[in-house]
Amino acid sequence: MTTYLFPLILIGGLTTAGVYLLLERSMIRMLLGLLLISNAINLLILRTGGSPGNPPVRGRTSGSATTTADPLAQGLILTAIVITMGVAAFVLALTYRSYRLNTIEEVSNDPEDTRVSKRSGKESIEEDEDHLDPDFSRDTDLPDELDALPGYEGSR
Questions:
Q1: By CB atoms within 10 Å of each CB, which of 13, 24, 106, 122 scores lowest?
Q2: Structural domain tally of the chain?
Q3: pTM, two decimal places
Q4: Is the dihedral of CA 145, 147, 152, 156 positive or negative?
Q5: Structural domain of residue 25, as residue ranges?
Q6: N-terminal to C-terminal alpha carbon distance within the chain
């Protein structure tokens, strides 16, 4: 059996580029590296499958071939392609989810935050002193979660 040098160099180049991309920190580059390594392995399986020959169907011939082709290599490659596409879809879903979680989304201005940020320091000190006053009464229009605590008298 003769081994051709070009397919082996191509397999080595794809594997090298795939490992380089796989070691990057970007998820997309890692996915591309995984795909390159997968294609290199598929080419390696195809090369080790043997020389081409007759189809593996009884009574069928192809040209002047005298041997029957091995269908196992082709079946393994088809299975590997399906698995690789599933893994690629999963990594893309992880990448999209990571992107959505790490991007800053636009948050509108809250009117209460705007009012507090415009308040002067003197006004805030006066309001803080009001909270220390025992006769200070709170707004009791809405139920307060602190009313349910033991030992808390609620608003006066």
A1: 106
A2: 1
A3: 0.58
A4: positive
A5: 5-53+70-105
A6: 98
Q: Residue 55 has which token pair? A: 């189809």
Which range has the worst mean pLDDT, 22-36, 104-118, 119-133? 119-133
Question: CA angle at residue 13 from 7 to 18, to 5 degrees?
Answer: 125
Strand partners, 54: 68
Q: Which amino acid is at 54?
A: N
Query: Cα(6)–Cα(12) distance, rounded to whole angstroms?
Result: 10
Q: Does residue 58 form part of some domain?
A: no
Four-residue CA torsion sign, 69, 70, 74, 75: positive
**CATH of residue 42:** 1.10.287.3510
Q: How many CA atoms lie within 13 A of 58 on its CB side?
A: 0
